[in-house]
Amino acid sequence: MSNCAENIHNRQIFTVSGKDITRAPDEWRRITGGKHLVPPSAVEPSVIKLYPSNRIRDIRPINYSENDQNSLRRSMSSFMLIAQCFALCPVQGITSPQVQDLRFRWRCLRVVYSIVMTLGMATTFIFTIAFYMKGFFNFETSTTFVFYALGFACCVCFLNLARRWPRLEDLWQRTEQEQIKYGYPKNLHLKINVMSTVTLAVALGEHLLEKYTVISAVARCSDTKAELIELYYLMDYSYVFQFVKFSPPLAVLCEIVNFFASFYWNFIDLFVMVLSMALSSRFRLLNNHLRLALGKVKPEEFWREVREDYNSLSVLTKYLDSCISSIVLLSFATNMFYICQQLYNTLRKSVGTVKLVYFFVSFSYLLFRTVAVSLCASSIHEESRAAKDFLYAVPTQSYKIEVHRFLVQISTDAVALTGCRFFTVNRTLLLTLGGTVVTYVVVMVQFSSPSSGYATNDTELCLKMTARLH
């Protein structure tokens, strides 16, 4: 290693546009501005990597400049801060512009906060299990069971992700540095902020509308405001107060856990969409670079560098998938369940005006979210394969071994997110989900007949809750 470092020091080798150039350290700093690469004489032997043709890349932590607001680190900082407010991904240094400030430690308040909320979800989930074991379980009322199961699983998945998040961001940042010649995705930070704001605002409105439907049903059975509030909690959280005596502090805790669980249900879709959009944007930058070379004769060095950049993105995609595949599985599984469940209740039950409005708002939002997460996640696969069109157009003079290797890799390498390897997220998956829902609706129409028992069930439950008050 010492001989290697000495040779590097004697020959100042760098790579600019695929060419090896010998420069003095001062001259090199003048050329690069000292932002992204440093002369090897300033690099410790333990932090360098040698590549073919004597190319060198510095693998030390990188300090981003103020103009790098569209890097993942800067674009995701506010988004991840919102997640930490709801006890998800308890990583320290999440708002720092330096990736080396990210670290996960079990002994910190963020982790304690996350564990407390995980225990809250687990406790509520156990209450729903006990409630349904008493004979209340059926497909119509299984929403609550799945709702808190999702909340608990979401807490566990993000706690596990927090342990790997610093490594993920570090790998992402190094990929951005190696491909700095492509720049950063245009307006990535703005797209993430707009997507997050719109999705969470609609989710909040949908959650408040759901609460209003419960309150409107309870209002028919209560005479005073105090009775209305108590009946609301007894009816909406009957799976808890079936076993525990009602008390205001416990009711507030149930409301908090319910609100957090509702946030988790919406956030897992948003989280997959944001990361998918960021990664597909990196592939799009590479494709734009290839589009500029369309039909032109390029040296083999050019195609080797582009292939290595593509391979770096492929490695990043696989590592991202290993980190969030369980979250992707949760997202698609729960969305499909709630689509089928809402269709089931609508086809079998007649509902009032308020619940009908809530159904259309909730179901439309759920469909939009499912389609959006499918398209965003599948865009990684689509963008990764778009480079084939440019390679097919390579002139004969340029078609050499590197172009062939590049084309073989794109054709054979499955670059896409998966749901714990049970399925691959591509555009075909969206058609599969749609076909499943249509088949389900056809079966429901054939074997089910509408009834008017929904309002009756609400009234009966309301009368039972009123009896418990007296």
Notes on the protein architecture:
The protein is mainly α and 470 residues long. Helices cover 69% and strands 3% of the residues. It has 16 helices and four strands. It has helices at 2-10, 25-32, 72-75, 77-85, 109-136, 143-178, 188-219, 225-236, 238-241, 248-292, 300-348, 353-385, 387-392, 401-412, 427-447, 453-469, and strands at residues 13-16, 19-22, 48-51, 55-58. Strands 1-2 form a two-stranded antiparallel ribbon. A two-stranded antiparallel sheet has the order 3-4. α6 packs antiparallel against α11, α7 (188-219) packs antiparallel against α10 and α10 (248-292) packs antiparallel against α11 (300-348). It starts with a helix and ends with a helix. Residues 1-25, 27-64 and 450-456 have low confidence and may be disordered.
Walk me through the topology.
Blueprint: H1 2-10, E1 13-16, E2 19-22, H2 25-32, E3 48-51, E4 55-58, H3 72-75, H4 77-85, H5 109-136, H6 143-178, H7 188-219, H8 225-236, H9 238-241, H10 248-292, H11 300-348, H12 353-385, H13 387-392, H14 401-412, H15 427-447, H16 453-469
Antiparallel strand pairs: 1-2, 3-4
Helix pairs in contact: 5-6, 6-10, 6-11, 7-8, 7-10, 7-12, 8-16, 10-11, 10-12, 11-12, 11-14, 11-15
Please give a quick description of this structure:
The protein has helices at 2-10, 25-32, 72-75, 77-85, 109-136, 143-178, 188-219, 225-236, 238-241, 248-292, 300-348, 353-385, 387-392, 401-412, 427-447, 453-469; strands at residues 13-16, 19-22, 48-51, 55-58.
